[in-house]
Write a structure and sequence with these properties.
Elements lengths: L2 H31 L20 H30 L15 H13 L5 H8 L2 H10 L9 H10 L3 H16 L12 E13 L8 E8 L5 E17 L5 E8 L15 H15 L5 E5 L6 H9 L3 E5 L6 H11 L6 E6 L2 E15 L5 E17 L6 E12 L8 H8 L4 H12 L12 H22 L5 H7 L1 H12 L6 H9 L8
Parallel strand pairs: 1-5, 5-6
Antiparallel strand pairs: 1-3, 2-3, 3-4, 6-10, 7-8, 8-9, 9-10
Helix pairs in contact: 2-7, 2-13, 2-15, 3-6, 3-13, 6-13, 7-13, 14-15
Length: about 525
């Protein structure tokens, strides 16, 4: 390619970018004229550092660590008291580190987003990092080795670690920290499954098995066994984007039906998780947010038995009898409609209440459900042609409660639509530093223990992110930028020891933004 053709190609690209910018400005003016408001984005600022001198940087780093320290001091004392109740099976005469110290060390490894046990050993044992950790956490007289933590997690009841997480969240609920984020006076709980690990060899009988396609040496298509770990997660998913880890249910090969050669599945795990959730929070008003896999009679029956509200995605090919009733009754009820704007989208809600759904053997069981359909239209700038094009989408949900003009926006836009919070939660834990898909241990019990410690570390970072004191830094640097700043600060000689001691002695309280 000659230089002239390169110049023409670059000129075309620049003209395309200018055309897209002009189209975007035109679209924003059109949306403003129509009364549409763009929802704020979470893009961090693309600017240089606001710190001009080394002293300003030192002061900023100190304030960031002190803001994080507020969360530590509010959460860790209760957490450590609960972790201390876990029975330690080790020989008391050979113990060098208490079990609470080991587990605190494990939690901090995830708070600072260490990618592996080896990296935690290497980074957190650096002299400056070690001294700063001792300054902030007097419990850490000496830092243990990650292999010591691994041996402890291999022998203790790791479910007690999750119980410590649940007690911590229960305390925040009792303090009404999340009261402003309720939907229909209920706590929105999103439940979904995700793959945690996959290997070609089986490390434990608990791992699930599947057959995958592969090529043989002669080039023919064949199959081979693959082993994986799958987890059903439950999280509080609030409309402001805050997603709080709640409960994990590991799918297990031994939980399957061996006589019928059926493995454990997500729906079976949901039954177990729901029973545990109801037993742990018997009086908590809950609205479960579920995807289309759970749109069936037994799940609806279970939610009604537990007195939970629900919003379940209803796909086009799910529950044909319900869709038939919807199409028939919708024409007879044209008044059950609401047109409104939500951000830059124009929405039309249509709903049908009191649909009788029959299921089970000979359709002897029945449940009354309510269906809402949301049709959306919005405009975007096409990346290729720089033209303003119209986009459409359709969403439908099964609702436990009758729909009205007064509650359809809250239940759908602020509740059901934010089921995506748990999907984003998976993305963060897998790709943004928490190493969700890293094994950490080949021992099944220890692997689950590291999983629960990871959830505790993530919870601490979430609470810190949404505190009023650190929210400005998050908007400027992003979540990963803030965590990186805290890790770098603790690994360098930035902190004023006297100010840290004063912060440890002062009263503290978590104030969410």
């Amino acid at each position: 390619m000659n230089h002239a053709s390169r110049r023409l190609q670059r000129q075309d690209l620049n003209e395309g970018k200018l055309a897209q910018r002009r189209a975007a400005r035109q679209l924003r003016r059109r949306q403003a004229a129509q009364g549409l408001e763009r929802r704020p984005t979470s893009t961090i600022a693309n600017g240089t550092s606001e710190w001009q001198t080394a002293e300003e940087e030192r002061q900023g780093r100190q304030e960031a660590v002190e803001g994080q320290l507020q969360v530590y001091r509010s959460v860790l004392p209760k957490l450590l008291r609960r972790l201390a109740k876990i029975r330690d099976p080790r020989n008391p005469k050979t113990i060098r580190h208490k079990s609470t110290v080991l587990m605190l060390y494990g939690i901090l490894a995830f708070v600072f987003q260490m990618a592996s046990r080896r990296e935690a050993n290497r980074q957190m044992s650096m002299p400056v990092f070690r001294d700063n950790l001792r300054l902030m956490f007097p419990e850490l007289e000496t830092l243990p080795h990650q292999d010591t933590l691994n041996r402890l997690l291999s022998t203790i009841e790791v479910d007690e670690i999750e119980e410590s997480l649940l007690e911590l969240i229960d305390g925040l609920i009792r303090q009404k920290k999340f009261h402003r984020y309720l939907i229909s006076n209920c706590y929105p709980v999103a439940i979904d499954g995700t793959q945690k690990l996959v290997r070609d060899d089986c490390w434990d009988e608990q791992w699930l098995q599947r057959e995958v396609q592969c090529k043989a040496e002669d080039g023919s298509e064949t199959t081979r066994p693959q082993y994986y770990v799958y987890v059903l997660e439950a999280s509080l998913a609030f409309a402001n984007g805050m997603t709080i880890p709640l409960m994990s249910e590991f799918l297990s090969y031994v939980q399957g039906d061996r006589e019928r050669n059926k493995q454990d599945c997500e729906l079976k795990a949901f039954q177990r998780l729901a029973e545990r959730l109801k037993q742990r929070f018997p009086r908590l008003p809950v609205m479960v947010l579920l995807d289309g896999l759970y749109a069936n009679g037994p799940v609806v029956e279970l939610c009604r038995r537990h007195r939970w509200q629900f919003m379940i995605v209803l796909q086009d090919d799910s529950l044909p009898s319900v869709w038939e009733e919807v199409e028939g009754l919708r024409k007879l009820q044209p008044h059950r409609r609401l047109d409104r704007n939500w951000g830059e989208r124009r929405q039309r809600f249509r709903w049908v209440n009191d649909i009788e759904y029959r299921y089970g053997e000979h359709e002897r069981k029945r449940q009354t459900v309510h269906v809402v359909i949301c049709d959306e239209i919005w405009e975007e700038v096409h990346r290729g042609t720089a033209e303003i094009v119209a986009k459409r989408s359709k969403h439908a949900w099964l609702s436990s409660e009758p729909l009205r003009r007064e509650n359809v926006h809250e239940r759908c836009n602020l509740g059901a639509r934010h089921r995506w919070g748990i999907e984003n939660h998976f993305l963060v834990e897998k790709r943004h530093g928490y190493e969700y898909e890293h094994c950490f241990s080949r021992n099944w019990n220890a692997m689950r223990g590291y999983h629960f410690l990871m959830r505790l570390g993530h919870l601490i970072n979430i609470l810190a992110r949404y505190t009023a004191r650190l929210a400005r830094l998050v908007r400027r640097m992003g979540v990963r930028g803030l965590i990186g700043l805290l890790r770098e600060t603790c690994s360098g000689p930035w902190l004023d020891a006297e100010r840290i001691r004063m912060a440890l002695a002062s009263p503290c309280q978590i104030r969410l933004e």
